């Protein structure tokens, strides 16, 4: 746990580095407010010292001093809250901007990973990281980051002001001040561990809940909804316990910090009080600190510890932010490995790998906007994909695909069939070469290449919305007639027109309302509307029964004519229309 803390701290500092200039004004507001506080304390000490001296001399309390001091006191009393409000507003806006930028980086990382994002958890757990755990950084950015500077500088400035009136009082303040941050660190390390456990539990709860909601129709058919409800209740209870553990630590540390600060202030007050009545053991009958200075010191003493107490409270925000940073760190590390910032966007790891290759006629960068207007030819030369450590996701493979050919990709489970498709989509780094229409694929603009490539996974890519909304995911400009033709081609139009609202029929999560085979047919209609010349199909019938799978492959055979198709399947014998089959070899490994 302690070894990971520097990484999370480095990530937090890296997040704040581009925004440091925006911290100048909040810090300036804090310094001005501190100067106003010292001035206000001096004015009050002068005013009450004058009244005390007049009372001691039996004179009438002077009112001229009050009228002189009152306007300046009002200035201090009004300006300090306004400066505090300004500082908080600036820091809150900064927090919003930092979190927004971080979310964009995380979403870009997930987009770069594509199907490989499953290695980092379920969609529910990933959504929790992008939403909840990014929001957990708010307290660190809007409070702790600036407060740690204020907590160091403010006591030193106040101690310097006190030192001018009493060296011993300043020494007492400085000697007791370290007790607050010391306890803050002791409790904060425990709070960091509790926050980590809390965020891990929240991610697990989010992932489990999403999976159960998606599988609710199946759970109901199996009469297992009650067991699922108990699982969610158990996970929610575990999250509640961990949340209460964090709150207990927060209240405990707050109480102890207040106790230490109160004892320290009381110690200074006792010294000043005994000095005013002349009973200090080392200064019998003397007044080492006059009333005016004693009052000035007592007014500043609570403010001496206030930033330290606030930092102790905000330290929990730092602990929570470190836990959240550790949760999102793997995604950001993957984004850093697979891409680098460029003037126009993001460059993938495969593109960066090929930058080390000398530029030739076939490797010059270009957008190739018109490269895939027709079905392309494809050639792989010693294409290999590495995994974590010494593992190999795909052993070196070479084969060629003619333009318009439909090729089956087979091999044992884990040999790297899906990884090969991910490399073609630009979602993972690789060794070797991929040639598209005789040109190195590394020279293509990745976004352009992806727009002209159609991908179909084992499960349909459908979102909650109408049938028309889901079809427009493939082609936003598609009209009703184009949708009808696509649905007719995949044999789904008769069903859709019998639905109460036709194309405007609402589908639930992951196409709920349609059967598995109908969902995959709707995905085939998306392929047709996309009208891409290169199709990459990753076991589209994996979760279908034999009869439905055969029917799906029959439709695929009809609509894929004229396309270059790479079809991954464990049962290529069920696909008679393939032109060729390529069997991948190599030791099975995790994809």
Automatic annotation (TrEMBL):
Keyword Cell membrane attached: yes
Membrane topology listed for this record: Multi-pass membrane protein
UniProt main location, coarse: membrane
Top-rank taxon: Bacteria
Gene3D superfamilies tied to this protein: ABC transporter type 1, transmembrane domain (1.20.1560.10), P-loop containing nucleotide triphosphate hydrolases (3.40.50.300)
Presence of the UniProt keyword ATP-binding in the record: yes
ABC transmembrane type-1 domain residues: 27-320
Entry-linked SMART domains: AAA
Protein's recorded name: Thiol reductant ABC exporter subunit CydD
Species the sequence originates in: Uruburuella testudinis
UniProt gene name: cydD
């Amino acid at each position: 746990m302690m070894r990971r803390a520097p990484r999370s701290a480095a990530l937090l500092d890296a997040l704040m580095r581009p925004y440091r200039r925006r911290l100048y004004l909040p810090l300036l507001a804090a310094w001005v407010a501190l100067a106003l506080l010292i001035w206000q304390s001096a004015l009050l000490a002068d005013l009450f010292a004058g009244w005390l001296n007049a009372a001691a001399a039996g004179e009438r309390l002077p009112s001229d001093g009050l009228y002189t001091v009152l306007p300046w006191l009002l200035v201090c009393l009004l300006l300090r809250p306004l400066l505090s409000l300004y500082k908080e507003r600036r820091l809150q806006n900064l927090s919003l901007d930092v979190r927004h930028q971080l979310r964009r980086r995380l979403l870009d990382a997930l987009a770069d990973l594509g199907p490989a994002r499953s290695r980092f958890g379920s969609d529910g757990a990933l959504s929790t990281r992008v939403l909840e755990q990014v929001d957990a950084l708010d307290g660190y950015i809007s409070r702790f980051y600036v407060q740690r500077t204020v907590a160091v500088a403010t006591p030193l400035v106040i101690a310097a002001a006190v030192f001018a009136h009493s060296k011993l009082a300043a020494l007492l303040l400085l000697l007791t001040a370290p007790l607050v941050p010391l306890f803050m660190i002791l409790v904060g390390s425990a709070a960091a561990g509790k926050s980590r456990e809390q965020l891990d539990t929240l991610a697990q709860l989010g992932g489990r809940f999403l999976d159960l909601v998606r599988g609710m129709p199946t759970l109901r058919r199996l009469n297992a909804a009650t067991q699922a409800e108990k699982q969610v209740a158990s996970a929610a209870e575990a999250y509640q316990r961990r949340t209460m553990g964090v709150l207990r630590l927060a209240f405990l540390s707050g109480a102890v910090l207040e106790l230490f600060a109160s004892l320290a202030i009381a110690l200074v007050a006792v010294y000043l009080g005994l000095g005013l009545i002349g009973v200090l053991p080392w200064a019998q009958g003397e007044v080492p600190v006059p009333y005016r200075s004693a009052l000035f010191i007592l007014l500043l003493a609570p403010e001496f510890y206030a930033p330290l107490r606030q930092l102790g409270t905000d330290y929990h925000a730092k602990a929570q932010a470190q836990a959240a940073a550790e949760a999102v760190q793997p995604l950001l590390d993957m984004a850093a490995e697979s891409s680098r910032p460029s003037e126009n966007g993001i460059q993938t790891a495969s593109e960066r790998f090929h930058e080390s290759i000398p530029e030739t006629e076939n490797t010059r960068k270009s957008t190739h906007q018109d490269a895939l207007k027709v079905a392309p030819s494809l050639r792989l030369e010693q294409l290999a994909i590495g995994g974590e450590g010494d593992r190999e996701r795909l052993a070196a493979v070479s084969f060629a695909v003619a333009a318009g050919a439909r090729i089956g990709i087979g091999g044992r489970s884990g040999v790297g069939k899906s990884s090969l498709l991910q490399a073609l989509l630009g979602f993972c780094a690789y060794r070797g070469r991929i040639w598209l229409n005789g040109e190195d694929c590394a020279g293509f603009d990745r976004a352009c290449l992806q727009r002209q490539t159609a991908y179909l996974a084992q499960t349909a890519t459908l979102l909650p919305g109408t049938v028309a909304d889901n079809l427009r995911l493939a082609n936003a400009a598609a009209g009703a007639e184009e949708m009808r033709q696509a649905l007719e081609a995949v044999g789904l139009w008769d069903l859709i027109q019998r639905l109460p609202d036709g194309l405007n029929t609402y589908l639930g999560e992951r196409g709920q309302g349609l059967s598995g085979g109908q969902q995959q047919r709707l995905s085939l209609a998306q392929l047709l509307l996309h009208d891409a010349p290169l199709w990459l199909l990753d076991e589209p019938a994996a979760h279908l029964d034999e009869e439905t799978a055969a029917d799906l492959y029959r439709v695929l055979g009809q609509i894929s004519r004229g396309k270059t198709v790479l079809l991954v399947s464990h049962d290529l014998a069920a696909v008679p229309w393939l032109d060729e089959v390529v069997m991948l070899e190599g030791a099975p490994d995790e994809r």
